[in-house]
Amino acid sequence: MSKLWGGRFTKKTDQLVEEYTASIMFDKELAEEDVQGSLAHVTMLGKQGILPADDVDKIKDGLHRVLQRIKRDDIEFSIGDEDIHMNIEKTLIDDVGSVGGKLHTGRSRNDQVATDMHLWLRKRVVEFVDMLYKLQLALIGQAKDNLDTIVPGYTHLQRAQPILFAHHLMAYVSMFGRDIERLQDSYKRINVLPLGAGALAGTTFPIDRHFVASQLKFDRVYENSLDAVSDRDFIVEFLADASIIMMHLSRLSEELILWSSTEFHFVELDDAFCTGSSIMPQKKNPDVPELVRGKTGRVYGDLVGLLTVLKSLPLAYNKDMQEDKEGMFDTVKTLQGALQLFAPMIATMKVNKERMRQAVNQDFSNATDIADFLVGKGLPFRQAHEVIGKTVLYCIEQNKYLLDLTLEEFKQFSSLFDDRIYAVLQPEQVVNARNVYGGTAKPQVQDAIGRAELALENTAAWVTEYLERSR
Ligand code: ARG
Predict the structure, then answer these.
(1) Does residue 111 belong to any structural domain of this protein?
(2) How far is it, in rounded angstroms, from Cα 10 to Cα 101?
């Protein structure tokens, strides 16, 4: 008998069908988790008296040997054995003999594969929280070095109001903080045990699902056996979380690319993170952020791909669901690649403080502040807006900035102006005037950094605890 399920068949599987339906080429990634699940399952079969202790010991010893071989990359998986579950079962039977055939008692590949995926993904989620933590650390480091660096803030990519560069960087710390929260929250739904659902309806054997759950450090077991084998929400959710992370990274990438251009020249990425041109000797290209921006597309693709696989799919298991894996593996690889480069790239980035200052001095981003000055003098904001609009127009015609105007020139537009406006217009003053919770004033940004560092400590503790729990 060559196939584990060969009994009902009289003809060999068509070679092309065998290749088409196999998943071993990619699900071998789940090999260690598959053994981990099997060890817990067979331990439970022994505890429940479903298998004699002797058989359980033989199977467990065999599984440990298989695990060592997996770690040494010493098993030749075969397409003929279709997927990782049957490849491992075959390898076990080759090792321990026919007693290995008792391992699959009270179990189906349907609850087995789901268990493997839960075990695999929960580790990745903890690793991603750790990687996001390191990126936040790098951003906070740069923010601390740039607490006095003033840069134009933009809306519509037009200069709007000056801000601290630290404040801009801390916006990304907040964004990645939400990503961390999302991943942490998703852990609850990943850390649920499907095993024991059988093919779809449960099993006739007196198994103990809660014991298996505790062996594998799952917090809960699936309530419904059909749901247990049909549910891929936890992967969809992960892909959605990953898509949002990539979206955030792509926004930061876009800014780094803009800031690295000669036109902005706000930052310089370290040589180690850039490449040159094969024809233009002067070029230093920001390839890493460009590729991260580009690779965002494939992660969105993986999300939409899986949502589409699952759409309208009847309960319970369908072979369509084998399509859940490649996208998940691809997204994990893509996200790992991006995050592992981003933290050191941010940490080593040079910030061109003078150039930023120059940009701030040569714009009208302090216009709101003199409008606010007139409001302070009792003028309704709408009228103040109109007055400053005319003043700015005058400046543009005269090729001047607001700070270049004499008091007489200001007074042409409103008699309310006095010489205190020159202080009001200074970039430091403009920045520090926004002294509200969450604003760009230096003390507020310092507070924000303090709060972020506190959150970092909590994240680090979470990672330590959950790395242990997901082993
Ligand atoms: N390779 C399959 C998958 O990844 C495992 C489950 C197969 N179950 C089945 N009834 N054919 O989905």
Answers:
(1) no
(2) 22
Into how many domains does the chain fold?
Answer: 3
User: Residue 110 Cα, ligand 1 centroid: separation in angstroms?
Assistant: 6
Question: Could you tell me if the CB of 109 is within 6 A of ligand 1?
Answer: yes
Confidence of residue 365 (pLDDT cuts 50, 70, 90): confident
Measure the CA–CA gap between 133 and 140, rounded to whole angstroms.
Answer: 10
> 159 and 244 in one domain?
yes
Closest by Cα among 228, 185, 234, 248 to 316? 228
Mean pLDDT of 23-45: 98
CATH number of the domain bearing residue 23: 1.10.275.10
Tens of pLDDT along 246-268? 999 999 999 999 999 999 999 99
* Residue whose C-alpha is closest to residue 287's, from 266, 321, 248, 256: 256
What is the span of the domain harbouring residue 158?
A: 120-180+233-358+447-469
Residue with tokens 């010991």: 57
User: Angle at CA 421, nearest 5°, toward 417 and 422?
Assistant: 135
- Establish if 424 belongs to a structural domain: yes
b/e per residue 325-335 (b: at least 16 CB within 10 A)? bbbbbbbbebb
Same domain membership, residue 459 and residue 411: no
Same domain, yes or no: 168 and 28: no
104 is catalytic: no
Instruction: Indicate if 148 and 12 belong to the same structural domain.
Output: no
Give catalytic status of residue 214 as yes or no.
no
CA distance 8 to 313: 27
Q: Whole-prediction pTM value?
A: 0.95
Q: Which of 156, 278, 312, 415 is catalytic?
A: 156
173, 150 in Cβ contact below 8 A?
no
Question: Hunting for tokens 């593996």 — which residue is that?
Answer: 329
Instruction: Name beta bridge partners: 142.
Output: none
Q: Does 82 lie in the same domain as 54?
A: yes
Please state, in angstroms and rounded to a whole number, the distance separating the CA atoms of residues 153 and 258. Answer: 14
**Per-residue DSSP letters for 84-122?**
HHHHHHHHHHHHH-GGGGGTTTT--HHHHHHHHHHHHHH
Res 2: pLDDT: 75
Q: Ligand 1: which residue has its CA nearest to atom 4? A: 322
Name the domain boundary from 81, 105, 129.
105
Ligand 1 centroid vs 285 CA: distance in angstroms?
45
Whether ligand 1 lies within 6 angstroms of the CB of 317 is answered as: yes
84: left (phi over 0), alpha (psi -120 to 50) or beta: alpha
| Geometric angle at alpha carbon 253, from 431 and 273, rounded to 5° | 110
Residue 365: which CATH number?
1.10.40.30
391 lines ligand 1 (CB under 6 A): no
State percent of the chain over pLDDT 70. Answer: 100
Report d(CA 248, CA 136) in Å as an integer. 13
